[in-house]
Write a structure and sequence with these properties.
heterodimer, A: 335 residues, alpha/beta, Alpha-Beta Plaits, 2 domains, 6-stranded mixed beta sheet, elongated, B: 262 residues
């Protein structure tokens, strides 16, 4: 049975905490295939941590079913945890132990945590295991947590906010470790409240809000909604109206405006950049590039596609209007 | 057993320090006996106290070896130290890990909650056994030097019953703390019970209507048969063991069923 079963299959999974429904999860349907990286994105309190901790049987479902590799999350919890590694979102370590002692304490029950594996991961993460954990910085404690999660070569990695506290170099190292684990056939479920942390690593993204999985999309689908913001300034100021008209006529381009030199404007640098045309572009950028090529430009800035925006925009879910902060302050839906 | 070893390793340095401290404390109390021995005026002073107060102080006899050890060592210093240290570890065992946010990492391993609970309970037992053994060892070594001459067997019986009483309290403390996820609830509930039951036990000799409640106190099963005089009480040992096992059974079951706090 277990050999074809997905790493995670949740069906109408619900966990309610009496009156505090906000902290639970509601009717969650979610599948994580083997060898897949799924990102779980949502604001703090959306239910990501509750969902993850239910997988390790720290939390018992109120209704619905949760199976990992075909095994029941409660009845077969020990067998499940033999195949699953976990990084808690709120990491705690006994302060007086060294890194090595910490690994022995929390990884000792797993046979596959070998000294060689631990040493290799410590090198990769640039982590000194001889130091007392109490003396480590937040980032180094996070690395220790990652080491504990990756050391057993588990078939499923459940990582709650894995990159929090890591510098960009270590975030890249983390991405490499995830790729290696996936290369070995592992499935990875990782959570973040920031889309940008997930988009580098995950193939699919699930959005959680108020305990529900609102949508699950492949990254390609999210990308299709991806909106980038750009600014261009024609070399000849007289060409500005021409560019504006051309942009307004271009497929996928919206919100075309000419920055006026208004002091106190929120747009940085707008005061001195007269004639600057700003715009937003959704989806395939090639029509935009074609339009921009028709006018000689003095400057051009084209931003990354804002997937956060796209993701929430693509959801178009109820509640989006009463939660303006959830989209990171972007003006959603007008284009 | 690996889990038990991990628990012991976590506190090895503190354990050694406390055991040395316990040995010094016991030796100091025992070493004071020659100074009091034969000082009849103290007994006269004691005899003037109301019976109820004598009961609370552990007895009326201060200058005989058995009286001295009963009142100074076994009704006061030794059990108080064992209770504080045992209950502290009992409460910290799971609730402490939960409050310190280290329980998730422990439970993420492929071990059942009951196995972890059992390992923690065994570690607390080993800890109390070490403390009880040190108490016995020091008293045994000083038995003739200090002129106490109580006898190694009866000292052992008393230390055994004391250790079991403290085990019952520590396991109950662990159960309540693990069941609620809060150290202070376990410590508070058990400390409150121990204090009240000590009053009941101490006063029940003089206050007749308290007599029927006496069996509800652990002190009755620890000291009620005067183990320094009569040796081991099989009933006392049985009751204390039963209380310990019931507490642990209930505690493990509740801990196994509830959600673990993040």
């Amino acid at each position: 049975m277990g050999d074809q079963a997905p790493a995670v299959r949740a069906e109408r999974l619900t966990k309610s905490y009496g009156r505090h429904h906000a902290r639970g999860v509601v009717d969650v349907d979610l599948t994580v295939a083997r060898g897949e990286v799924l990102g779980l994105v949502g604001a703090n309190g959306a239910g990501k941590t509750t969902l993850m901790r239910t997988m390790l049987d720290f939390i018992r479902p109120t209704a619905g079913s949760l199976r990992l590799f075909g095994l029941d999350s409660v009845a077969d919890s020990v067998a499940v945890r033999r195949r699953v590694a976990y990084l808690p979102g709120e990491l705690g370590f006994p302060a007086r132990l060294t890194g090595h002692q910490t690994v022995a304490r929390f990884g000792g029950a797993r046979r596959d945590v070998t000294a060689a594996r631990v040493a290799a991961l410590a090198t990769a993460l640039d982590l000194d295991l001889d130091r007392r954990v109490g003396d480590l910085s937040k980032g180094n404690k996070q690395k220790l947590g990652l080491l504990l999660a990756f050391a057993p070569r588990a078939e499923l990695l459940v990582l709650d906010e894995p990159t929090s506290g890591l510098d960009p170099l270590m975030q890249r190292q983390f991405a490499a470790m995830v790729r290696e684990a996936v290369g070995d056939g592992a499935a990875v479920l990782l959570s973040s409240h920031v889309m940008s942390e997930v988009e580098q690593i995950a193939a699919r993204v699930a959005l959680m809000r108020d305990g529900r999985v609102v949508t699950v999309q492949s990254l390609a689908q999210v990308m299709a909604h991806g909106r980038r913001r750009g600014r261009a300034r024609p070399r000849d100021p007289l060409a500005t109206p021409v560019l504006v008209a051309a942009l307004r006529a271009t497929a996928g381009v919206s919100e075309v405006t000419v920055a006026a030199p208004t002091p106190g404007s929120v747009e940085p640098g707008s005061a001195e950049e007269e004639g600057m045309v700003t715009f937003a572009c959704t989806g395939d950028p090639s029509p935009l590039v074609a339009t921009l090529a028709t006018v000689p430009l003095a400057s051009l800035d084209l931003g990354h596609a804002d997937l956060e925006d796209a993701f929430f925009f693509g959801v178009g879910a109820p509640g989006a209007t009463d939660e303006p902060d959830a989209t990171g302050g972007a003006e959603g839906g007008s284009g | 057993m690996r889990l038990v070893g991990s628990e012991l390793a976590l506190r090895r340095a503190a354990t050694v320090a406390w055991l040395v401290g316990m040995a010094v404390l016991v030796a100091a109390v025992a070493g004071f006996f020659p100074a009091l021995h034969g000082n009849a005026s103290l007994n006269v002073l004691y005899a003037d106290l109301p019976a109820a107060l004598q009961g609370l102080l552990g007895g009326a006899d201060l200058v005989s070896p058995v009286g001295y050890l009963s009142t100074q060592m076994f009704a006061f210093v030794a059990p108080v130290v064992l209770l504080i240290l045992g209950m502290g570890r009992g409460a910290a065992a799971l609730a402490g890990e939960e409050e310190d946010r280290t329980l998730d990492l422990l439970l993420a391993q492929p071990v059942s909650r009951r196995a972890l609970y059992g390992a923690k309970a065994v570690a607390v037992t080993i800890w109390l056994t070490e403390l009880g053994a040190v108490t016995w060892g020091v008293l045994a070594a000083l038995d003739s030097v200090t002129g106490l001459h109580v006898g190694l067997g009866r000292l052992a019986a008393t230390c055994l019953q004391m250790t079991l009483m403290c085990l019952a309290a520590s396991w109950a403390c662990m159960a309540i703390a693990a069941g609620t996820g809060r150290r202070i609830v376990g410590i508070g509930a058990v400390a409150y019970y121990l204090f009240l039951s000590y009053l009941v036990y101490g006063l029940s000799g003089a206050v007749r209507w308290l007599g029927p409640v006496r069996p509800l106190t652990v002190w009755r099963w620890y000291l009620g048969n005067d183990p320094l005089v009569h040796g081991v009480s099989v009933t006392g040992v049985g009751v204390l063991l039963a209380v310990s096992l019931v507490a642990t059974g209930v505690g493990a079951a509740v801990f196994d069923r509830r959600d673990v706090h993040a």
